[in-house]
């Protein structure tokens, strides 16, 4: 790979990406464009502008954007239509944010004539894969620079030396090593590393930043109603809201009630196991609610089909294949099933859990006339069940007869 | 089907199966053998003996058995190895008990020379299917009598008239219609029908019988440790216990902390949707713990494979195909993956939820040496990731190049 | 089910459906509408009109339609996009025709004010299921009459007596029992029953009606080129043709070269095994060609995904669930993958087989620059493979290390 | 990776692996052990011994083994139990041989105290992945040397120079570049590269080495019978034969009749498409026969399950994951289904194709009593079908009713 001439960097404004910024300038002598996105991580973005300028980035090369609505509408919600969880439990909060960032990096590269993009993910994790697969899928000629895989700043000491040497300001609380590493966006906060590295040791309480402790959460349950249209949440307690606003509100509710904590050991795409603490307050409520509305509006054929392909869909997102033909084909399937997933779910929020307690819909497939224990006025002929069972049993009888004969 | 001569009836001792007993005698003039099983439903069995005798059953035709260990060891535990849930949430508590009952019915029929078995399930539900498919799979020549599909006792009034006419004692509290229908065993209690028939109306509190209300559950979390061997729970807090004892203890713990409540609308095999309230206190803890131990002992290849076939496995159990070649083939796959699923999980029980907080194992695949944020002493070469990503990206680049060319 | 007042009958003009027509009139005293479709079965339709009139059907109640283009464009081609085969080998020729017939029956019922439809399939086969599921899916209030399951004309003798009694003309060659039963349409001819009922006995030569014997087929191979657009065949040897015309031409080519014979034992949906002789001359060529064009235009992610869901898709069609949400969701997935399946395949037709021998496309993903054994000018860096393998191996090494430790 | 001290090389005795042998000696100064296996590739092995000795390998370091029975019994047959084909058509002939070679390389390394193994696969193909994943899975501490990824002998000229420089004899016909590259074993011969690199150009006739041209094959069909036990072929025409003998005989038969040619473009694991000509004469017959015997002995539940996981199983083998927990778990499933796959298949071999024409078994599930068009003496009650259909339709009716209401 020839040296890059102009690089678009995913820039947070923090110490690490500031070091990367400077390293790109010094290592490659290249022009740097910064992209700082508000994905709902809960940090001010404007300080990143000042810092980028201080590090010599031209004003026209500083991109700062609020992408929260794009994030929720075009990434989070499509994924939630699938009830996607990775390895049974993880709601893919980090995985789903990476493709959006790469998409904007590539678009900005094309707009600014840059030939490369750069990210601050390490060589051990999944995020490097997600950033790079997305970038290459969107622009097969783009170069991707992953400084953590290239440089020799392999210890905290070397990083700080590099920062000092290049006049990068170091906040006092960044001198020492953080006790764990954090990623956050509107969907979740993840924590991993250092104090969390032994999965046999309980996580310290101070790791949790996004949710209140269930033990100190309110002693009274709170009930809410979430409205859905075609599989996407559109309202809370009857109030129509934009996608990002809905997720923000659900995050607040989830935080209050201590909902969405997960202590998890997962299999990374790069081959090792890793332990993370995930907090997904709003997403956990949303998943429960989406399942609740599907219960009455989705037929079993579609539902079982969705369930059977979900693990593969979740694995694709986890592994970084959001922008792949197979994810898009699966999405076509999933979206097709959501045509009538419209209605309202009532949930109880209490001490760490969200539970569906009622659901209704004009699109409901639930037929009290059929299921009732009372007289069903002929809606269902119980005698049909005998034929149904007999033909389902025919194969089993033939097997049993054969097995008895040959044994 | 010719008339049965001798029938083994799944007999609870309650009013409904007593009516069936008498109806079999009067309708077919046949000898009746009763089978009453302790599956952990929490009822005394001996009253069933007296009642059967009173209804004219010969002592040698009364079978009363404690099958709890068989139930947990050979049905519940194999199913939990798969992390089986139906439609995302239901732990299959009713489904998994039916095959065992049918197996004993058929065995007793063979032992007593009976040519038929009978059950008390209605023609609208899944249980008839489960009872009958299991019976036919085990003995293709057996007859199965399902009185609810045959007789004309189609209302409570008619049933009570029949009972009075045949001197079947009616407990006072059985005169009126029960507000909902209940099934229970060591794994769960289900409630459905009548007051629960509108899924848009919250379930009344009095429906819950097996778990305390999370709101009144203890204000302090309780921590327990569950030991596993080859995928099955073998100990609680270091104490080795039999399968049924483990589930019993977990049920007590789950009850206390209000764990395992589920308000659910599901798709029945017979084609309609149905709403049920499920309480699975111990099973909910067990599922969480099993996932926890798999997190460190199961590799991603086996784990993702299991996840992908789980919905089909769960559907087979739900639909009544426990005794089918395909369920057995899937079980062979699942059991093969459990060879090293051995170790200990620590869980927090609190206010309705069980959460894994730590896990350890001599069989762990978790490698702190590889994953650490610290110096890994060469365990992992970050440069490998570049090649890994490049080859995973090659296909995506070729696609992007093609698409750009033809668009 | 109350008695039907007006019935639309799938009417071939043959003896059996004429008997059904008369039986409907006499049994139910109802008005009958006939629907006779040209699906490419190779029979004249106009005699059916005369016969229907003779049996008392009003002219305005006689529907005769050429549905071949609809059949190929909207049923056969979508199915071939999936490379659908049932149980590894069967191209679903009968299964795919039934939904179309039911759709027209229901539409004609709605147009003529009929409250029922009727078909001539027996109670043992799959076709009854396919006709009826399709009808109910399209009109949940329609009645379906299946005379073979209702009447007592259970022998050839009784049928002929009924025909004579009602002045239904009996062709001389219909007096005796046919040696096997046949179904045909533009996609295939199936033969089953009687002389074919022992799967251990070779089929007699005279069963084959649609394909020449490979042994007497031309001694020289013939080469053809099939053009595809978005997964559908659009031309033969450069000549653009309509869907039905393409299939007709391929049938002629396949017939000449003895292509598409299959001696098969399959599992019916109703639970028994059945042996059939299938002849699918054009379809067999088409399947091979479609696979050939996908080889260069479809990426592995989409391709493997399609392959993995194909058995379920084929099973749905076989079982009669064409008009189901899950088939439509799978179709959405499949169609999404076909966006670039455009190009040309060259095939060799010879003595019973069609083989792809070359394929090319403007949409090809094949990159000679990457794959070449010659100097690839840096298109591919072989060193990437080391990292790719190392990370794919990491998991396996950790497993091996663990297993060695605990054994 | 530190330099290897002693290397076990997969050695064919040909020019390329002789160059590798010498390169290992000169590059690393290490001791070399050669392993030459008879996998049925049809070459004499003893010349490899002389050549190895000439290149300075100690006699005790030369391993020459006939592994054909091991290959067929423990690799080919288990794979055929699954009816495994990659991307619809490829019988995995190369893929399945690699794990066995790696296993012996690792075992010999352990026996001789070698710390590394080496193979002659290039950095572009799948074989490097297969060799290395297998080796690492069996011995996580082994080093694997892949000279083609390491050295700079990047052209034919350089290779020949190296050979001459190191006194490696060069057969006259090896001076020029071969027109294509070949791999062979008892299951198949593959050809790829150079003259085959344009998939739009027909393969020259001279590429085919393992099968006669169908056009010149015998004009008369030949009929054979293959006996199976538990899914494996055990006899031909009634003669019990060892696994390798059976495959050898089937290869002879297939060769004569021109069976098993495949012109294919596939997706390599490393991300590019590749065109190969495969000849699998015996394997093609065996696959057809295995499907034939499963048709009557395997029930639909097991069969459909097998079909649905087959693509994943085939992909695992193709990608080199034979020695992985997930392949072994899938194998457990597959083997479980083969318990009764015992019986005999009759096939017609003719002009390029093998077709099942009859099959019989003591373990047959085919019931003429049930399927017959004649009177079935009550084996099957056609009225059952009405109930079966009604309950399968119930869901579809509820959907149709809902959709009509909301549209």
Strand order of the largest sheet of chain A: 3-2-1-4-5
- Report the radius of gyration of chain A as a whole number of Å: 25 Å
- Share of helical residues of chain A: 40-55%
Based on secondary structure, the structural category of chain A is alpha/beta
Query: Oligomer, anyone?
Result: homotetramer
Name the biggest interface. Answer: A-B, 103 and 104 residues
Pattern of helices and strands of chain A:
EHEHEHHEHEHHEEEEEHEEHHHEEHH
Strand tally of chain A is: 14
**Main sheet overview of chain A:** 5 strands, parallel
Determine the N-to-C terminus distance of chain A.
66 Å
Overall mean pLDDT of chain A stands at: 95
Tally of individual helices of chain A: 13
Give the overall silhouette of chain A: elongated
Residue runs with pLDDT of under 50 for 5 or more positions of chain A: none
| Strand percent estimate of chain A | 15-25%
């Amino acid at each position: 790979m020839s040296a890059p001439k102009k690089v678009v960097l995913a820039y947070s404004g923090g110490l690490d990406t500031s070091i990367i910024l400077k390293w790109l300038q010094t290592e490659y002598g290249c022009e740097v464009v910064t992209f700082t996105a508000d994905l709902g991580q809960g940090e001010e973005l404007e300080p990143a502008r000042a810092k980028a300028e201080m590090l010599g980035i031209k004003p026209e090369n500083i991109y700062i954007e609020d992408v929260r609505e794009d994030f929720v509408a075009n990434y989070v919600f499509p994924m939630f239509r699938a009830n996607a969880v990775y390895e049974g439990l993880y709601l893919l909060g980090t995985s789903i944010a990476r493709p959006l960032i790469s998409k904007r990096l590539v678009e900005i590269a094309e707009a600014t004539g840059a030939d490369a993009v750069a990210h601050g993910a390490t060589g051990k994790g999944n995020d490097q894969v997600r950033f790079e697969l997305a970038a290459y899928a969107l622009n097969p000629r783009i170069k991707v620079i992953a400084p953590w895989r290239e440089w020799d700043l392999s210890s905290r000491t070397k990083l700080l030396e590099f920062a000092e040497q290049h006049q990068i300001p170091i906040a006092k609380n960044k001198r020492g090593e953080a006790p764990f590493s954090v990623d956050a966006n509107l969907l979740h906060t993840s924590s991993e590393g250092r104090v969390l590295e032994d999965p046999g040791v309980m996580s310290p309480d101070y790791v949790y930043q996004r949710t209140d402790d269930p033990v100190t959460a309110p002693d009274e349950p709170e009930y809410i109603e979430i409205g859905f249209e075609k599989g996407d949440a559109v309202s809370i307690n009857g109030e129509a809201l934009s996608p990002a606003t809905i997720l923000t509100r659900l995050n607040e509710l989830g935080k209050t009630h201590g909902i969405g904590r997960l202590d998890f050991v997962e299999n990374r795409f790069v081959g090792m196991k890793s332990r993370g603490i995930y907090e997904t307050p709003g997403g956990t409520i949303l998943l429960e609610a989406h399942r609740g509305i599907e219960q009455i509006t989705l037929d079993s054929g579609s539902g079982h089909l969705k369930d059977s392909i979900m693990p593969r869909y979740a694995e694709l997102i986890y592994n970084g294949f959001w922008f792949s033909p197979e994810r898009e084909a699966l999405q076509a399937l999933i979206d097709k099933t959501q045509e009538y997933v419209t209605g309202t779910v009532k949930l109880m929020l209490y001490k760490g859990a969200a539970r569906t307690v009622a659901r209704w819909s004009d699109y409901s497939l639930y037929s009290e006339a059929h299921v009732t224990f009372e007289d069903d006025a002929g809606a269902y002929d119980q005698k049909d069940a005998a034929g149904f069972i007999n033909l389902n049993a025919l194969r089993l009888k033939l097997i049993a007869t054969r097995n008895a004969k040959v044994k």
